[in-house]
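Field log, afternoon session.

UNIT: design team B
ACTIVITY: writing a sequence onto a fixed backbone
BACKBONE:
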């Protein structure tokens, strides 16, 4: 009796199987994963991950991004991370060298196209005798290299500096000599022709290694009584901003590579008296490298001029090698000034020459100033001053 009574009171619980509330589940999911808080956290984590990947794998060159607004800044030829295989001294395009101005040197060349010279007509007629004259190559002053003939000092001390400097004899009564040096010769066809007929004799031309018809440009300049020097791109403090092309000598290279770069440069032609450094060389942690370059310059028997008035590196190294004919620029003349201000700058050169006897001044390739310079040079004799080629300034310093 007890057992049936107990079972009659025991009830199995009812199981309720219902359809899940889908709307409630979606709402809970969106509240947890698509809230403002989760969005902020997810975005932040994604941003941190992207920055880490970019930094670690180097997907983006931040230096190039920051400098992308400068139309004159191009991709670096070499970076410290690149292997030695970047020594590319094959045929290159004839493009202007782009120099920065870390020391704010007035007149430092940045443009070489005719458009930079305004409305000045540059369809200049060059006399036939200038177009037809050829420079004689003195074979004994050259030696063979992997790239062609390059200058070399002979055993008895003969050099291309002595052979190709402009023959000039200063007047005995001169109270001072002034050397005007124009850069970027050869880059613009119109400007090059204008300089040949527009500038006075004895103005020195620095020819770009990226000039078209390189040898012809040298021949014409010498025929018009202009001494020629060759621009030699070398690593400077503004490396990475300066785009100086595939023949630039670099501190990251070994001595053999920089010798090859210099030989490639010197093999482009003949008739130049020396080379030009546009800015102060900067060979950090590579002092032996820059010394080796100066040894090569001395062995080549060429002169050296520094366009940077603050270049004490070249001055010091050249002073240790007495066989290198060397001089440094004193100042840049700003061709962007008004005609009156430019005339004052030219007049100021006269006073400096009277005080120091020798003065070197650089000018950009700016045809709008050529006639003014020619007129000024014609009146120098009245002040017992002379306009001389760069080699004469070296010999008179």
């Amino acid at each position: 009796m007890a057992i049936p009574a107990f079972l009659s009171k025991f009830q199995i619980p009812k199981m309720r199987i219902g359809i899940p509330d889908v709307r409630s589940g979606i709402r809970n999911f969106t509240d947890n994963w698509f809230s403002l808080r989760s969005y902020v956290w997810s975005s932040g984590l994604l941003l941190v991950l992207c920055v880490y990947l970019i930094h670690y794998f180097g997907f983006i060159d931040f230096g190039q991004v920051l400098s992308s607004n400068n139309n004159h800044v191009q991709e670096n030829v070499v970076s410290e991370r690149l292997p030695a295989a970047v020594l590319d001294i094959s045929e290159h395009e004839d493009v202007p060298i782009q120099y920065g101005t870390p020391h704010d040197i007035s007149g430092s060349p940045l443009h070489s196209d005719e458009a930079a010279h305004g409305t000045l007509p540059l369809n200049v007629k060059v006399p036939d005798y200038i177009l037809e004259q050829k420079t004689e190559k003195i074979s004994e002053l050259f030696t063979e290299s992997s790239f062609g003939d390059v200058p070399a000092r002979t055993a008895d001390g003969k050099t291309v500096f002595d052979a190709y400097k402009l023959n000039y004899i200063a007047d005995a009564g001169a109270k001072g000599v002034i050397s005007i040096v124009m850069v970027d010769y050869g880059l613009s066809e119109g400007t090059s022709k204008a300089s040949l007929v527009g500038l006075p004799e004895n103005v020195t031309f620095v020819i770009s290694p990226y000039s078209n018809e390189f040898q012809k440009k040298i021949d014409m300049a010498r025929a018009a009584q202009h001494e020629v020097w060759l621009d030699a791109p070398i690593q400077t403090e503004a490396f990475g901003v300066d785009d100086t092309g595939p023949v630039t000598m670099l501190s990251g290279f070994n001595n053999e590579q920089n010798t090859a770069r210099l030989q490639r440069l010197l093999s482009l032609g003949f008739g130049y008296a020396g080379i030009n450094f546009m800015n102060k060389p900067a060979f950090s942690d590579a002092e032996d490298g820059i010394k080796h370059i100066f040894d090569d310059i001395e062995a080549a028997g060429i002169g050296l001029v520094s366009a940077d008035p603050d270049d004490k590196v070249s001055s010091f190294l050249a002073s240790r090698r007495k066989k290198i004919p060397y001089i440094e620029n004193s100042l840049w003349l700003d061709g962007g000034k008004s005609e009156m201000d430019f005339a004052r700058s030219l007049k100021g050169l006269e006073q400096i020459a009277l005080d120091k006897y020798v003065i070197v001044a650089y000018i950009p390739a700016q045809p709008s100033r050529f006639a003014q310079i020619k007129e000024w040079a014609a009146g120098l004799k009245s002040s017992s001053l002379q306009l001389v080629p760069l080699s004469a300034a070296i010999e008179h310093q």
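LOG NOTE: Residues 34-72 form one domain.
NEXT ACTIVITY: expression trials, pending approval
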